């Protein structure tokens, strides 16, 4: 290979290395983007949402309900994630008020509407009998618990989880179940 061709190969290699370096720098910037909350705080909030949603989901799973442990955990996690995004958007909006207008309450409304849609899907009406209302309500409540965790109000989230478990477990023990007919269904 003559020296002119060799110089061209080295030059294109150098350009490719510079391009690769720029691409890696751009990728690193995406992961190192500054946020209003420290990363460990975000992780704690998301883990709390998972754990508290799991407590309610475990109770539903233990009683063989349609939406159980995983569903409730995912609902709480998603709600917490959406809330963290809303917090970041609000902080971005405050810093760049001339560029973008944000309203975090609209995101909370969207989360509650989405969870309500899922909860409504768990309600079944069959021959005049309605089933799944408590599961739907617990799913909706897990959305609220996730929102609380995402906002950092972990005490409220734990209190609501405890109260929900009281309602789901203790009230079941205090109120007798209606008698079942020969097919195992509750009478109309």
List keywords for this structure.
about 190 residues, mainly alpha, 2 domains, two-stranded antiparallel ribbon, about 75% helix, elongated
- Widest β-sheet, arrangement of strands: 1-2
Q: How many distinct domains?
A: 2
Which ranges are low-confidence, i.e. pLDDT below 50, for 5 or more consecutive residues?
A: none
SSE order:
HHHHEEHH
Oligomer: single chain
Give the C-alpha Rg.
25 Å
Helix content: over 70%
Shape call: elongated
- Enumerate how many helices there are, as a single number: 6
DSSP summary, beta strand count: 2
SSE class:
mainly alpha
Largest sheet: 2 strands, antiparallel
N-to-C span = 91 Å
Could you give a quick summary of the protein structure above?
With 188 residues, this protein is mainly α. It contains six helices and two strands. The mean pLDDT is 82.
Structural overview:
It is a single chain. It is elongated, with a radius of gyration of 25 Å. The chain has helices at residues 3-31, 39-62, 69-95, 104-121, 133-151, 154-174, and strands at 124-126, 129-131. It has 2 domains: 1-33; 38-174, no CATH class. The chain has 188 residues and is mainly alpha-helical. Helices cover 73% and strands 3% of the residues. A two-stranded antiparallel ribbon has the order 1-2. Strand 1 and strand 2 form a beta hairpin. The model has no long low-confidence stretch (mean pLDDT 82).
């Amino acid at each position: 290979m003559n020296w002119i061709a060799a110089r061209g190969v080295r030059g294109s290699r150098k350009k490719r290395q510079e391009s690769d370096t720029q691409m890696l720098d751009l990728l690193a910037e995406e992961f190192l983007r500054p946020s209003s909350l420290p990363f460990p705080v975000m992780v704690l909030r998301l883990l709390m949402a998972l754990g508290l949603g799991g407590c309610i989901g475990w109770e539903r799973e233990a009683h063989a309900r349609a939406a159980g442990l995983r569903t409730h955990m995912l609902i709480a996690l998603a709600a917490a994630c959406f809330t963290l995004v809303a917090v970041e958007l609000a902080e971005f909006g405050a810093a760049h008020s001339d560029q973008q207008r944000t309203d975090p309450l609209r995101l909370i409304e969207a989360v509650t509407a989405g969870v309500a849609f899922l909860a409504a899907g768990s309600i079944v009406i069959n021959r005049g009998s309605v089933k799944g209302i408590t599961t739907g309500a617990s799913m909706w409540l897990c959305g609220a618990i996730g929102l609380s965790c995402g906002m950092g109000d972990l005490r409220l989230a734990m209190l609501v989880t405890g109260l929900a478990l009281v309602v789901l477990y203790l009230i079941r023990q205090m109120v007798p179940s209606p008698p079942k007919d020969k097919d195992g269904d509750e009478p109309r």
